[in-house]
């Protein structure tokens, strides 16, 4: 795995939770010594020199691999990618292929990453499950890249430097406290892992126009020559919990721990006090988040008995003392790393993880509050997340005030994605309170009990692959907004606009074209950004030499006059003509066996002609229609002359059919389940 974006733990005060002690900067004998000391900044040039000097391919591969590791652990996946590829070329171990795939994923080259994860699964069949998990994440990322968003993300260029700025916290005044290892951080030493200064807390004031300018160290009593960061404050701002890595006497080679400091009556802050949360404090603890009421605190820890990597824990304040921590459980925690917790005003949990399905390194997730626990995490997708490391989210607004509020959600986050000012930058984001609309459709055909017989019972539906789908918007000229092809599951999708009417049509050779209307008018959702409009198009296969029944065509008893209840079915037939303008169709009418044959023949001819007249009146050319009366010559059941039948059985024979003449094919409509019986003549 990505060793947890170890870079983040180093730079983003994820060094505040670094896997082991923060590496020293003693004299290194060779590149591997520097690497093992986590002095990656110096290890990289030394390993490159040793790579050039190595004569044996396997040794060159090893040096190339550890150059890639040093870059990756220092957050530079772009350069790591090339060195892993070189290690593979030199025949190094399969782990080079896996880490190469990880960097491709982090660099958002998802299709290439899938190929390399697949190669790794072949090379290491006993580890194929973790490769398959990564392939699943890559496929999700490819899908998420296609989704729209109305979220605006802006780099806070007035704060960010060439160093790292991260983990913003907004105070009650609106001012921001954040962590940085910029050049003016306390102390003169540099951190071997990153090559930057040890990190401190900084304060910036919120201006009247909402911007943040002017940065000063937060408090001399808190900032030291070691790593400090990721603070959380009590509601009144008089108490701050933060993470510190390193202490007097042990220097940087100490575990990360949570400390607390309090504002003094005469000004300034108290000397920080260490918070003892576990009986054994020989592992890393950090990233505290204090609840608004101050009754509980969330934090990340690399404690024994966890699920793997860093897990999230909760501790409750009991009589002025923090109680025994409790894991947030397997719904939240994974074999990877879960860090940087935050609780919004609705009680939802936000955190970063590289163990859940994500886009690359650390992604930000949301778990809804669910009866005192937190539910299944949801990836916040693009552009909150990227292939890089995204973490340290702080919401300033979790929900809109009402339907007319222009902003749904706003806040800040940290990312080392490309295009920033430095290694890790703080970004501001704002989610517009406007819904996005998407059409999700499927095109299907019927599965008949007797294949090839559309008069048999419909058992189910099956998808049609590679059908032509056209989506049009109602308006002048009916503009086409999408020309699509259905996939192997018959699915298709299209972005839509708000307050608009549409129709989608589906067609494929061997089928009659069919359309369906839908709308986005009146659709609004204050809880979800995307509103999905789902449609199902069922197209009729063209069958040869079979008469087709049109259900729900009714006439008055012993009359050729159409009853008004027939009009919806006839309007559907009219739509079929309009969708398929080359068809020439025979309209046939059938009677039951009662009455004389000659009379039934005349009655059926008149009824067929009534249907033709109705369609011609709506604009269908007479040349495309033929009216044929069949009388009682084509019964569908046993009810011939002299056979005792119910009215329902006789009604089945009184039907209207159609036949496609131009293609010499026929099509079956659905037989109605509710059979309406003509009233008897009194």
Structural class by helix and strand composition: alpha+beta
CATH homologous superfamily assignment of the largest domain: TolB, C-terminal domain
Give the N-terminus to C-terminus distance in angstroms: 84 Å
The outline comes out as: elongated
For the largest beta-sheet, the strand count, sense and barrel status come to: 5 strands, antiparallel
Number of strands: 39
Supply the number of helical segments: 11
Proportion in β-strands: 25-35%
Mean pLDDT: 87
CATH architecture title of the largest domain: 6 Propeller
CATH top level label of the largest domain: Mainly Beta
Number of separate structural domains: 4
Radius of gyration (Å): 35 Å
- Share of residues in helices: 10-25%
List strands and helices in order, with pairings.
Elements lengths: L5 H6 L19 H6 L3 H14 L3 H17 L3 H13 L4 H13 L3 H14 L4 H18 L5 E5 L9 E6 L5 E5 L9 E2 L4 E2 L2 E7 L5 E6 L9 E7 L5 E9 L3 E12 L10 E2 L10 E6 L5 E6 L9 E8 L2 E2 L3 E2 L10 E6 L5 E5 L9 E5 L1 E2 L2 E2 L3 E2 L10 E8 L9 E9 L9 E8 L3 E13 L9 E6 L4 E6 L6 E6 L5 E6 L4 E7 L6 E6 L10 E9 L4 E2 L3 E3 L16 H13 L5 E6 L6 H21 L7 E7 L15 H7 L2 E5 L4 E2 L16
Parallel strand pairs: 26-33, 36-37
Antiparallel strand pairs: 1-25, 2-3, 3-6, 4-5, 6-7, 8-9, 9-10, 10-11, 12-13, 13-14, 14-15, 14-16, 17-18, 18-19, 19-22, 20-21, 23-24, 24-25, 26-27, 26-30, 28-29, 28-31, 31-32, 34-39, 35-38, 36-38
